[in-house]
Amino acid sequence: MYSFSDAVVIEDEFLRDGLQNEARAFSMEEKLSFVSALEAAGVSRIQLGSFVHPKWVPQMADTDALFDAISPRDGVTYTGLVLNKAGLERALNVGAKHLSISISASETHSQKNTNRSVDEGRAAIAPVIERALSEGITVRAGIQSALGCGFEGRIDPVRVLNIAQFFAAMGVQELNIADTAGLANPRQVYDLCALLADNVAPQLSLHLHDTRGMGIANMVAGLQAGVRVFDTALGGLGGCPFIPKATGNISTEDAVFTCSEMGLETGIDWQALSGVVAQAETLLERTLPGRMGHVAPPPWLTAQETAHA
C-alpha cells in the first residue's frame, strides 16, 4: 500500500498564505529573516507573497519590494501568487520566474475572492497565463476550493477536471489542487488526484489546509496517488481571508517530518525549523498549531547525531 519513492518538493507559504490573514504587519527585515531561515533549513521553494491590491490584503503590500530585496540562492525557487493582469505586470517588473495563477472551482468563493463567476474567472485568467508563459515564466495553475467549499460544500470533481484540462491545454507546467477551506478527507484527495493524473499531463501539487485536523492524512493520500509537490506553511499558520474559520496550512515541519519518517527525501531539516517557529510565535504572541516545532527530538536520534559529530 505504501510503495512510496522519489523526492518530495515542499513549497513553504508562510510569507503569503501564512501572513495574509494576520493583523500584525511584518516588516521587510522580519520577512527577509524568515526567507534566510527557510533557505538555511533547506527549503527549496518559497512563496514570497501575492501580487494583489493592498486594500484587500494589506500584509502583501510589499511583495514587490521583497522580491527586489532578496539575494537569490542557487537551487531555491521564489514564487508569488497572481490573480489578474495588474498582478502579473507587477510580477514581471520584479523579474519573478515562477508564479501561481489561480481561480476557484466554487461559484460563491470565486465571487467573494475576485467578484467574478467561475466562467468569468476562467476567461479573465486565460490571457494572464498566456502572457506569463510567453515571458518564459513557469506557471503553476491553481484550482482553489477544488476539494470542497466553505460556502457550498462539495465540489463536483468533473468541474475540477474541466478546469484542469482548460489549464493543461494552455501549456502550464504544474496544476495545484487546493483544499482552501480544509474540508477534504483522504479518500476524496486520493480519488481526485487519481482522476486528474489519468486525464491531464502537467505535474500535480496539493495545497492542503488543516481546518479539521486531517491535513497530514490528506497529504499521505496525495502521496499514494503519486503527488510529490505540497504546499505548507511554517508553524501551520494561514487561512483564507474570505472564508470564515478556514485555518492554516499543514505545517512545514510536520510535513517534512512525515516524509522523513516514511523515507521520502525533501532536503529540509525539520529540526532546524523549530527555532524559526519560535521566532514566529514571539512576533505573533501566540502558539502556532504545528506540532513538530514543539516536540524535542527523540533520544535515539540525538544519540545518533552526537555519535556522528
In brief, what are we looking at here?
This protein is of the alpha/beta class.
Q: Would you mind describing this structure in some detail?
A:
The chain has 309 residues and is α/β, with parallel strands linked by helices. It has a single domain (9-308), classed as TIM Barrel. Helices cover 42% and strands 15% of the residues. It has helices spanning 14-18, 28-41, 63-69, 85-93, 107-114, 118-134, 157-170, 186-199, 215-224, 252-261, 274-284, 299-308, and strands spanning 9-12, 45-50, 77-82, 98-104, 138-144, 174-179, 203-208, 229-232. An eight-stranded parallel barrel has the order 1-2-3-4-5-6-7-8, surrounded by nine helices. α7 (157-170) runs parallel beside α8 (186-199) and α8 (186-199) runs parallel beside α9 (215-224). The chain is globular. The two termini are 36 Å apart. The model has no long low-confidence stretch (mean pLDDT 93).
Keywords:
8 strands, 15% strand, alpha/beta, single chain, 309 residues, TIM Barrel, eight-stranded parallel beta barrel, globular
Q: In total, how many domains does the architecture comprise?
A: 1
Share of β-strand residues: 5-15%
Ranges where pLDDT stays below 50 over 5 or more residues in a row are none
In percent, how helical is the residue content?
40-55%
Q: Order of SSEs, N→C?
A: EHHEHEHEHHEHEHEHEHHH
Strand order of the largest sheet: 1-2-3-4-5-6-7-8
Query: End-to-end distance, in Å?
Result: 36 Å
**Global Rg:** 18 Å
CATH topology, by name, is TIM Barrel
Q: What is the assigned CATH homologous superfamily? A: Aldolase class I
Shape: globular
